[in-house]
Amino acid sequence: MGLNQQNSPYTWYREIALGNTDVKWETVKKFNFGIDYSFLDGLFAGTVEIFRDKRRDVLVFGDQRAVPAYFGTTTPTINKGKVNTQGYELELRINKSFANQLRLWGNFSMTHAKNKVLEKDDLEMRPTYQWAAGYTIGQYTSHIDAGHVLTYDQLYGSPKHDANDANCLPGDYYIVDFNGDGVVDSRDAAPYGYSNIPQNTFNATLGFDWKGFSAFV
């Protein structure tokens, strides 16, 4: 007979979430080297900078941890991740004044930043190409297609699918058996494309000033 909280004469308490008293802020070592430049009496100016960040003790939240579902609750956040980021920043400023009090100016910048996960709480039994470690943050994984199945001969020679295999027909996608085990399943999802974090960002601002009036876009 199972315990019934409603029929019990006692007050029940249930632990909703597990905590971690040892969790702390992430730590990062930063290296930056930059050069400021200006020439033609300030007509052109800007900066060139390179940077490198080594981030440690990155927070790995409970729903991202390698803990099986039968644990019974969401596991606590821990400081386990390691991420390296490196890149460069370019900035150009243009400033031109004329005798009639008109000034034209523009600011242009570009940032290139690429990160790589060195360590995360990845599942040991998962294929390494599906780990977060070794790839960028938020790396997409996807089944890879090799065109379409055009004939029944190609269909019979294509890998078996773990679901709805009997419904496959000519015209369907030919899904690559990435791990070569003869079956197309969840283990065949491989790193594909980029993550949702852009490696390159661009910015441009143009404006003018004239006799107290100014505008920019």
Describe the structure.
This protein is mainly β and 217 residues long. 3% of the residues lie in helices and 45% in strands. It is built from one helix and twelve strands. The chain has a six-stranded antiparallel β-sheet with strand order 1-2-3-4-11-12, with no helix packed on it. Strands 5-10 form a two-stranded antiparallel ribbon. Strands 6-8 form a two-stranded antiparallel ribbon. The chain is extended, with a radius of gyration of 28 Å. The model has no long low-confidence stretch (mean pLDDT 90).
Can I get a quick summary?
This protein is mainly β. It has 1 helix and 12 strands, in the order ββββββαββββββ.
Low-confidence stretches: none
First-last Cα distance? 72 Å
Instruction: State the shape.
Output: extended
User: Oligomer, anyone?
Assistant: single chain
SSE string, helices as H and strands as E: EEEEEEHEEEEEE
Largest beta sheet: strand ordering: 1-2-3-4-11-12
Query: Tally of extended strands?
Result: 12
Annotation field: number of helices: 1
Q: Give the % helix.
A: under 10%
Largest sheet: 6 strands, antiparallel
Beta-strand percentage? over 45%
Q: Could you tell me the radius of gyration in angstroms?
A: 28 Å
Average of pLDDT: 90
Structural class: mainly beta
Provide the descriptors you would attach to this structure in a database record:
217 residues; mainly beta; two-stranded antiparallel ribbon
SSE arrangement:
Elements: E1 27-39, E2 44-60, E3 78-97, E4 102-119, E5 141-142, E6 145-148, H1 152-157, E7 160-161, E8 173-175, E9 183-184, E10 190-191, E11 200-210, E12 213-216
Parallel strand pairs: 7-9
Antiparallel strand pairs: 1-2, 2-3, 3-4, 4-11, 5-10, 6-8, 11-12
